[in-house]
Amino acid sequence: MCAIVGVFGVKKASTVAYYSLFSMQHRGQESTGISVANDDRISVYKKRGMVADVFSQETLDSMKGCCAVGHNRYSTAGSESTGDSQPVFAKYKLGEISVVHNGNLVNKQEVRDELIAKGAIFQTDMDTENIIHLIAKSQKDSLVDRIKDMLTRIEGAYCLAIQSRSKMFVIRDRFGIRPLSLGKFKDGGYIVASETCALDLVGAKFVRDVKPGEMLTFEEGKEPYSEQIFEPDYHPCAFEYIYFARPDSIIDGKNIYQARLEMGRRLAQETPAQVDLVLPVPDSGVAAAKGYAEGLGVPFEMGIVRNHYVGRTFIEPTQEIRDLKVKLKLSPIKHLIKGKRIAIIDDSLVRGTTSTQIVKMLLDAGAKEVHMRIAAPEIKYPCRYGIDTPTQAELISANFTVDEIADKIGATSLGFLSVEGLIESLGSERNYSLVSFDGNYFAGGNANSLGCAGGC
Ligand code: AMP
């Protein structure tokens, strides 16, 4: 998961990076960091916590320079280490570099074992540290050639921003699995960010998505230089559209809200329910629920209130805490629900924790029937490309039939969007990354290989 940003040729680059990370807080809440380069040095500030809590005006003012890279780290269960935050900074033969990464390298362990055998030492579990080591160990004379060398050794999903004192390099893997957009400021200067919502907040104009397999080099007084490093084999992640990205963002020309609305409409065609009312699981199910209600011609209501001061529930390490947190977070509006047949729409079903709680909550609030509808296909395989899904043993759809799951979560009925329906909602002209649904690990790795614990 995670978010990255790179800012180049802008006076207060640290402040621009800060607001960009603020707008992408949903992509990672464990830790955040920014590094800024000027002629003298690269300075790094990173800490556990949310963007607004970590950075003060004073800190940002002290980080002087026209180039900044930044990162929000997603909290993976059990990963409590402060050292695992980014940017990752190092001094090496050619000077100083700082790296931020969004994705997950599937050959992390193999490369790490090789480096360790040659005497390298590692401070963290992060695959980003592999990247730094590979650059430092390359025998090439320039940073750009060392980066290219490094790129031949890493596999999987990655969006990278790499900063030296005078340049910035931005790279997207050849599959384009994670999103990355380029924007331009009116008064000069550029920004690259995981989501376009960051560009909107800081007033940058969207230029285009960074192409799969492309490297962009930013240098003072020059336009960004584009180089196609790898033959593109575009497989954007479908889960960005389903759940992860913000509804106002645009990936590859497709607005996330519109995509979710369409998924809801398809869901209504594929698995209609005889109901009086359609409710979303807030916030991630809202757009799909609106589409579902439209498709059925049934009223849509925000019948569940979300308490925004509780963090996401998915990331807690034990089942007991997860259950309590769902109740803390969501609360039904009883007078809307009592005596009604309800369709409740969520964006995805992973372990089944949220839906079990919600079905019970609605029945307790007096619902006559609760029909659960999921605006995504069944998740049967762990993602290895940067979405934090649990092991196959924990994925409810990998272990039970739809009817069994309906029973387990206590729903009157249960329905999922088909893979074909998802593809049609997104536009069939692309090969999406559908690994969680079809187990096609096209970029390497497999259901049992390393997950995202060391990725970002
Ligand atoms: P679960 O309760 O385990 O079935 O998870 C499903 C809920 O978690 C849904 O409401 C989703 O919005 C949310 N969700 C799905 N995937 C993820 C993820 N990778 N990280 C955090 N939350 C997620």
Describe the structure.
The protein is 31% helix and 24% strand. The protein has 456 residues and is α+β, with helices and mostly antiparallel strands. It has 2 domains: 3-234, Aminohydrolase, N-terminal nucleophile (Ntn) domain (Glutamine Phosphoribosylpyrophosphate, subunit 1, domain 1); 259-441, 3-Layer(aba) Sandwich (Rossmann fold), CATH 3.40.50.2020. The strands form 5 sheets. A 7-stranded antiparallel sheet has the order 3-2-4-1-10-9-11, covered by helices on one side. The protein has a 6-stranded antiparallel sheet with strand order 5-6-7-8-12-13. Strands 16-19-20-21 form a 4-stranded parallel sheet, with helices on both faces. Strand 5 and strand 6 (95-105) form a beta hairpin. The longest helix is centred in the middle third of the chain and has 15 residues, at 256-270. The protein is elongated and about 70 Å long. It binds adenosine monophosphate.
